[in-house]
Amino acid sequence: MSATQELLSSVFGFSSFRPGQQEIVEAVSAGESVLAIMPTGGGKSLCYQLPALCREGVTVVISPLIALMRDQVRGLREAGVEAGALTSGNTEEETDAVFSALDQGRLRLLYMAPERLASGGTLSLLRRIGTGLIAVDEAHCVSQWGHDFRPDYLRIGELRKALNVPLAAFTATADAETRQEIVTRLFDGAAPRVFLHGFDRPNIHLAFQPKDGPRRQILEFAAARRGQSGIVYCGTRAKTETLSKALADEGHSACHYHGGMEAADRRSVEARFNTEDGLIVVATVAFGMGVDKPDIRWVAHADLPKSIEAYYQEIGRAGRDGAPAETLTLFGADDIRYRRAQIDESPAPPERRMADHGRLNALLGLAEALECRRRALLGYFGETPEACGNCDLCDRPPEVFDATQPVRMALSAILRTEEYFGAGHLIDILTGNATEKVMARRHDALPTFGVGREFDRRQWQVIFRQMMGHDLIRPDPSRHGALRMTHAARPILRGEAEIELRRDTLRKARSGPQVKALVNEEDAPLLSALKAKRRALAEVARVPAYVIFTDRTLIEMAESRPQSLDQMAGITGVGAKKLERYGDGFLSVITGQAPDPAHPLRRRMAGRSEAAVYDRLLAVQAELTHGADGAGKPMSCPASVLAKVAALRNADKTSLARILGDRRSERFGDAFLDVLNEA
Question: In 3D, which of 174, 506, 454, 208 has the Cα closest to residue 336?
Fold first, then answer.
């Protein structure tokens, strides 16, 4: 077993790397400059935390949010790793403890915010403590046109050159343009080794719904997941407050979060979210980057996100522990108009606005997709997966119809009114509704007047929304949102192309999404008991519950029901330190009784290959305590000696005798050698 795999198992409690992790860990450990683009929840932090234990010196981690740094430091300390953070949120005692650990050479990872790089003493501090590696989390924050831009990230490149140490940068979402900006600004243009790994999060169920009473839709979705931690993203601050109140009125534990709140109130919500099971936070995107709670079970969007990257990043906050998670995104024509206007009114250069329209188009294509959503989502990132079986369109394939004729009718009405009107007026024309506005402009005389009576007003609204979703028409901000035809629509209007739309969304449907249980009915009571145990331990330790164990770990315990510390050590997420601290307590919950006491040395072997050897040696020793004939003087080996024998590789009589001594070797040597040869 390699050193990295040994640390992966013994410290972090994982039996194997996630896809893509191992080659990144090995490259960072070897001191290569690295840029890694990995899916949200794909295990980026391990890719610098594990190398920090392999390399000389202190690994400095530059991370954008205090809450994120605190969470990672707590998690590392629980796993037995010396880590600390220097942040503006530290108490004087916390800062003193960090400096003391640095002075004593104990600290392996030092977290700091990018803003600290502006301090004149930071460079001398990092030189003094022997910085061996810089790791940059959320590296896309260096992009000046990104929505997460942090100006102090621009200082990192100079810091790397001044310290002359390798740099590893990590991000979940970075298109080719942003990747090039990261290389230029962090690596001074010298190409790092780039790892671009799959963006798939197969444990996350994807679903979209057209808005049809959005408050009711969100309340129904939350009701089916009562007691599970979730996030609801809203487009406005006011909506976060009204929707969180509506959820609270329905009996949920819910609160709101937005950028207009006082800093102390925001910190209070962050602390509650990290420590309370089942809390729902209704938030704007201000509650975003840095949310690293692994057991968020669902994310809902009450309004359409701003782009496909934003959508991917926001749903990626669910299910980071690998257990099942669900999403729901609501969208409507008003959302599309609002997002288009945001882009058109942006101060960004024309080419940036064009790129932003492309990103929104990709999201709208996902919303109006006719087959597997995951295939559409990953296709945007350059991947070509098979149908996923874990999205609403795979669950229930949509009913489609040839919409070429009604789309042509709508396009004709837009052109015949010189692209000066919105959907409401156009629908009046198509359905033959002779309003005052229609009559005043003589639009009742148009050839398109009344040609669309086959569909009612609501159905035409759905058709127009789907046309916007397919980017056939766009609202024009210079004409107060009037609809204009795009180049993509011309082939359809000219009869050179056809188009299908969803028929099922034309009909009013009230079927809410169904909850997916985390475990089967038989294991559910045990999972609840394990969560209660975790919550009690977390309250005593004053840490978030997931720092003890994640949902994924508890689910695996409930399903596999380990009966010993050795079996418990095989559970994902149970490292040596956590097994030592919590193993007996969780075994008691599973088995209903306290585990048999074991020697401390044997306990530390739990889950390792020598544990079984140690047990066999103990059994052989018991058989020979009074000699082969049972008449000799009692003799045994101390536990420390048995542990050394169990750890022997390529043993022979000579090496055994050095450990056992002559008298014990004479009685136990041959039998112990047989055990070692069988192992």
Answer: 208
